[in-house]
Amino acid sequence: MTWHFSPLAVSAAALLLCMPVNAGLYSANSPVLQVTSKTYDKLIAQSNHTSIVEFYAPWCGHCKNLQPAYEKAAKSLAGLAKVAAVNCDEDENKPLCGQFGVQGFPTLKIVRPSKKPGKPVIEDYQGARAAKAIVDAVVEKIPNNVKRVTDKDVEEFVGGEGAKAILFTEKGTTSALIRALAIDYLGSISFAQIRNKEKKAAEKFGVTSFPKLVLVPGGDKEPVLYDGELKRDAIVAFLKQVASPNPDPKPEKPKAKKANKEKKSEKKAKEDKKADKGEKADKAGKDSDSKAGECPHKAGKDKAAKESASTEAPAAKPTEDAPPRLRMLSGPEDLQETCLTKKSPICILALLPAKASDDADLPKPATQALLSLAEVQSKHSKRGSIFPFYAVPVDNVAGLVVRETLGIKGPQEFEVIAVNAKRLWWRRYSGADFSRNSVENWIDAIRMNEGKKEKLPEQMVMTPEEGRPEAAVKAAKEALGVKDAVVDEKTGEPKDAPEEKVKKEEPIEKLKFESPEGLKVEVLDDEPVQPKRDEL
After folding, report:
1. Do residues 122 and 152 share a domain?
2. Which residues form the signal peptide (predicted)?
3. Residue 89: which residues within 8 A CB-CB, separation 6 or more?
4. Distance between CA 403 and CA 417 in Å, rounded?
């Protein structure tokens, strides 16, 4: 069968292939906001909301790989922050890309408002190219205009001018949704958060369940309790009785004028066909060849751009970064000096369990907990606002003494505890749920100085005057019945060792914690035997 195409059909197909509307990675219906040099200032720099901006090139393979995760992040952040993209391959956008120092694609920048309007704080996004990582990083940068109110100052807050919105909650942290709403209503509604432990405030507004949002309209109007879902659109509809969200510029439909121009061109082509089917059709056929040949010239231009970009900063791999890891306190002295002196900060300790065999893996709860702890630490450490997290291997004698002294489970079980040697208290993680949310809630409670604490025995704490904790370690070993072998200085072997020779132990510093896939440790038994390296 022979297929016949009219010259006009070929011409129309060429037009569609070369339409500039489809030049970028993101369509007009994409949740990703398309920004240009002309609209950047209005949509991003002048906005009260935090944004993440991707600078990309359509031909970049890494950019194409990022696209699905970036659009997923945009959907998750809808109503909370802006997820935008700039096509650096467009001539009009090249000055903006140059202004941001873009050298490789994709480059991501987090833009958040500062105290000076129109002059936002800009920082590089260095996290994993995954939707969850992007969302977490952006949420972290959403400004917090929500006031924390207690029983002592609730009357003062409510008595001020203007409408108030108060969220009663069991959580100590402020959610991204409430922070975003506070931005939407800056100047019209003041937002506050009150913990469930503030009994007088809850009683004042008739709050008996949590979370609960209360609107105080102001003036002589009575407070109104919100019983709907804690979702942005529903809350906005509820708050509409006193105010509407501040207007934030919405993007115009990209290149609408050009699209209309293309439609007019197609219409004119049809009219020309009706007027003269002969000569006009042949001319259209020639034009179609010309247009089809001109469109690929961009590929040659892109190839040159690729070669230029390859000499500059290489694009990062589109795979996720290696998971964050906890530092290992492998020796007794490490644990004692880091977390058990009178000047030590709060320490989160993951006490690793013993394994049933050399080839056995860590229990799933332990693996999940280590990953969750590492992610929470990584999230907060960027702001320098979190205490340190550590992992303690089962062969760390000081860790075993901690278990015994505090009366917690034996070395066969995995435990997570918080220790404050300076204030002489400790706290145990309860429950079997080690998901990130559960772990982060537990950490937040510690940060907010909430929850029940146990008294830490003073004998566990070393004073600065005691110097290095050799005495404490010695006492710990004695408590567990662990004896140091007497080593011959010449041979390096235990004097009372059996006939089978024992190799020297490798330095304990070689222990390296790898979370969550594995953990490399040396298991040191009471008897002088060949050290083994476990692959967890």
Report:
1. no
2. 1-23
3. 23, 57, 58, 59, 302, 305
4. 10
